[in-house]
Specification:
Blueprint (H helix, E strand, L loop, with lengths): L1 H5 L3 H14 L4 H13 L3 H18 L2 H17 L15
Helix pairs in contact: 2-3, 3-4, 3-5, 4-5
C-alpha cells in the first residue's frame, strides 16, 4: 500500500490497505493508512468509518498511541465536513 501511495496510485493503495485490514484486523497502522488514502481520494465517509474502526481496534488492543493518532485524524476529518442544511438555518422545521 505504501509503495502504491508513493507512486501516486491511490486506488491501488486503498485496495492494498483494505486487504491488510481484512487479513490482519488488529494492525492499527493499516487503519490509519487506509483512512488517510480514502481522505485523499475524497471518500470522506468511508475514511470516517475506517478511522472509527481503527480507534476501536486501538482501544481494544490497549494501544493508546495509535488510538490518539487515529482519533486526531478523525477529528481533523470531522472538522472539515461541511455543515448540513439544518445547521444553516435557525428557523423551526416547517416554518
Amino acid at each position: 500500500g505504501l509503495e502504491y501511495r508513493k507512486a501516486g496510485d491511490l486506488a491501488k493503495a486503498a485496495d492494498a490497505f483494505s486487504v491488510v485490514v481484512r487479513v490482519n484486523p488488529e494492525y492499527t497502522a493499516a487503519f490509519q493508512e487506509l483512512g488517510s488514502v480514502l481522505v485523499e481520494l475524497g471518500r470522506h465517509e468511508d475514511a470516517r468509518r475506517v478511522f472509527v474502526d481503527g480507534v476501536a481496534t486501538a482501544e481494544r488492543n490497549g494501544s493508546s498511541r495509535a488510538r490518539d493518532h487515529i482519533g486526531r485524524l478523525l477529528a481533523e476529518l470531522d472538522a472539515t465536513r461541511p455543515a448540513g442544511p439544518a445547521e444553516f438555518c435557525d428557523a423551526e422545521p416547517g416554518a
